[in-house]
Write a structure and sequence with these properties.
mainly alpha; 2 domains
Length: 111
Amino acid sequence: MSKLMATTIGLITSSALLYSFQSNIENNTSQIRGNESNISPTKPNNRPQLPVPSIAQTKNYINHRLIPTFKSTWNEHIETFAHKVCNFDASETAKTAVNNAKSFVEDKRWK
């Protein structure tokens, strides 16, 4: 299939999809507007309202829960990293890497 034909088919398909989506959006919008016109504006909203946390509650959550949790997780990761750096044996790691490279080369050479 030539590039021109593939591009043309792609454009036709995307245009059809966009037209379908636009039609669906228009239909849904008109249905919503029709439902809103049936509701009298004097009726209160019957949906339950979620409680909005106060600034004090949010501040307490941040200071007593979020920050200490973040700090402890951060400290654990730093401690683990420092432990790995302190116990890192460069010579043993280099020997292992060289042995792995040798075995890899030998395996590839005979295949």
